[in-house]
Amino acid sequence: MYGQRDESKGMREHERMNKRTIMIFPAFDNMHIIEGLRQKYDPLYSLVQPHITLVFPFESELTVNNIKSVLEENLASITPFYIEVQGLQCSDRWMYLKVTQGEEFIVQIHERLYQQYFSRFKPNWLKLYKPHLTVGQFNSAYEAKQAYEIEKCQTDKFSCIVNTITVETIGNNEESIIEIEHRL
Contact, 91 vs 130, CB < 8 A? Predict the structure, then answer.
């Protein structure tokens, strides 16, 4: 359903610009509920698993080994942690579930990565980081609000232990190609 691992990196990896994202792929027991929402409202549903973004998409010539080293150095003291996601929200053209527990750990990882190695890739629009899990992307705020009004009674709680930080390359067709799974 989702993208695949790219085993064809070879010698050319350092020669091309890769568009990457660093994220958490939570493993909720009741993920089918989130998948149902995403199937209806998220155009990336079939291309990337439900996720919480830590470092937003950036283009660079960094190698997998460069990024592995950065993660090992900056996240060495981070251990697996518990998260809960609950409460549908709507903002601008997005509908998402907010992180209700574990937010401080996610923010800490986000800040460590951006304050250290990835600061040059921080988007100008990113002023205040609020961890969330997107379930819908829309063409307008009006469309997002309409979907929210339909789904706002969704009150399920989603929880799990986060023990992996993932780096993906975003493929030519927006598909997720997993490059690194950094264990905490």
Answer: no
